[in-house]
Design a protein that fits this description.
Elements lengths: L1 E9 L2 E8 L6 E4 L2 E4 L2 H4 L2 E4 H10 L2 E5 L1 H9 L9 E3 L2 E7 L2
Parallel strand pairs: 2-6
Antiparallel strand pairs: 1-2, 1-5, 3-4, 6-8, 7-8
Length: 98
């Protein structure tokens, strides 16, 4: 499984935008909710599972989309099932580590 990621750093915070690679470029819509999983936001590079795990562990702010990505964050103890939202069955989760 590959993940598409974009990492940016501001001051002492690392922001990670990560999604299941197969979702890159897709639009998901449910009623009035719309999300475009854009290459400019999520598509800096493709990484494998081990690198994705490292990025998830070491980022301060994480914006994630997709079943594989969200499941990996839950497996690592970073995300929580209660914080997951879905649009058309696609989960997304935002994490702010304090």
């Amino acid at each position: 499984m590959q993940f598409s990621v974009k990492v940016s750093n501001y001051q002492k915070n690392s922001t990670l935008n990560i999604c299941d690679a197969k979702l890159l470029g897709k639009n998901i819509v449910q009623d009035e909710l719309k999300m475009h999983i854009s290459e400019s936001y999520y598509g800096e590079k493709l990484v494998e599972r081990e690198e994705a795990k490292s990025l998830l562990k070491n980022s301060s702010i994480i914006n994630m989309v997709g079943k594989e990505t969200v499941s990996l964050s839950i497996e690592l103890g970073i995300g929580s099932e209660t914080g997951i939202k879905t649009i058309s069955g696609i989960p997304f989760l935002l994490i702010f580590k304090i």
